[in-house]
Design a protein that fits this description.
Distance between the termini: 42 Å
Order of helices and strands: EEHEEEHEEHEEH
Shape: globular
CATH topology: Jelly Rolls
Low-confidence stretches: 1-34
Strand order of the largest sheet: 3-4-5-9-8-7-6
Oligomer: single chain
CATH architecture: Sandwich
Number of helices: 4
Mean pLDDT: 80
Radius of gyration: 15 Å
Length: 189
């Protein structure tokens, strides 16, 4: 059985989803700079439907069903919808993706104390963070947020089956989902 996950506000009950610290800076077509981050090939993740963020090829590589289900945020209707890519083909993995306009990756850097686990990483040349309210190996859920462009963040929340909690690191497929998805998003411009 998989635990549910949602994106939203910082008082989400510790589901491993991200805070909504906000912020906005204009991006340039070829490179996004400002607030200490550089995005050499900015992408516009909201240029496609949320359930097209993960391409069918990427879903296949992750071992999950290629069709996603749009989900409204039950905790905060002002937060963008996410897309849940059901259970994996063998039932041990759930992936949800959401794109957030007017949110900067630096807002996570500035609020890292909100997370039990916080790590700055890079994914395919884009700044990203692992930001989890609970240890992913203990909770079975991992949230990774990637700066698609200066004022946009894409979040991936992965949950492994209860039987795999403590055995499989949910952050590995969360990072992989973003890395595999990124090439299919349109260029920002």
């Amino acid at each position: 059985m998989l635990a549910s996950c949602s994106f939203g506000s910082s008082d989400d009950g510790g589901s491993g989803s991200g805070a909504d610290p906000g912020g906005s800076v204009n991006s340039t077509p070829s490179s996004s700079k400002g607030s200490g981050v550089d995005i050499s090939s900015p992408k516009n993740a909201t240029g496609v439907d949320v359930c097209e963020l993960l391409s069918p090829e990427a879903a296949k590589q992750l071992g999950i069903k290629p069709s996603g289900e749009r989900r409204e945020n039950d905790l905060d209707p002002d937060v963008e919808d996410s897309c849940k890519y059901g259970d994996s083909l063998d039932g041990d993995l759930s992936v949800s993706l959401a794109a957030f306009d007017d949110r900067q990756i630096v807002s996570y850097y500035e609020n890292k104390e909100m997370y039990a686990i916080f790590e700055k990483i890079g994914i395919a040349g884009h700044p990203a963070v692992v930001a989890a309210k609970q240890d992913p190996m203990k909770s079975g859920t991992c949230s990774v947020f990637l700066a698609s462009k200066q004022d946009q963040v894409v979040g991936a929340v992965v949950t492994v089956a209860a039987d795999d909690t403590g055995k499989k690191d949910p952050c590995v497929p969360a990072k992989k989902a973003l890395k595999l998805s990124l090439p299919s998003w349109p260029a920002a411009g």
